[in-house]
Amino acid sequence: MASKMQTLEDLYEDLLKDLYSAEKQLVKALPKMAKNAESPDLQKAFEEHLDQTGQHVERIERIFSDLGSSPRGKKCVGMEGLIEEGSELLKEDVDPDVLDAGLIAAAQKVEHYEMASYGTARAWAQKMGYHDAANLLQQTLEEESMANEKLTELAESHINIEAK
What domains, with CATH codes, occur in the chain? Predict the structure, then answer.
């Protein structure tokens, strides 16, 4: 049975476990997205974000280590749904340029989900006086935001035009 949530600390740890699961799922999904991307720029963006995602996992592990706890034990169903949505696109008969535009859309949904979650986790960490954790979460938040901006640039510079 799930433990009772009674404090902000409980909620914070639960959110971080959710993010940990989300990042672990992304570590598996990003190579598939890179492999299916037609545009070399988009492939590279997915591969670079895969490296960052590994660092995001490590940061969450560090935060839990400082808490004397484990990040394991929760499945992020939100991320599971977003990844499944992206996977459905790969099963369709889609023009490669159109597929790239769809992959960007799927990836941006993921980034926005993560940005919302990391922003909340950072705010809670600050509120509870976990300044080291707040700094780590802020770093990740900035990287997610930059990844999102890069996807927007790729979409606007050539991918959406080629998909047209």
Answer: 8-163 (1.20.1260.10)
Distance (Å, whole) CA 74 – CA 34: 27
pLDDT at 163: 66
**pTM of the entire structure?**
0.92
| DSSP assignment string, 1-51 | -PPP--SHHHHHHHHHHHHHHHHHHHHHHHHHHHHH-SSHHHHHHHHHHHH
52 has a pLDDT exceeding 60: yes
Q: 122 with 137: CB under 8 angstroms?
A: yes
- The pLDDT tens digits for 10-31 are 999 999 999 999 999 999 999 9
Alpha helix positions (H), 8-156: 8-36, 40-67, 77-91, 96-127, 131-154
Asked if residues 67 and 15 have their Cβ atoms less than 8 Å apart, the reply is: no
Q: Are 119 and 141 in contact (CB under 8 A)?
A: yes
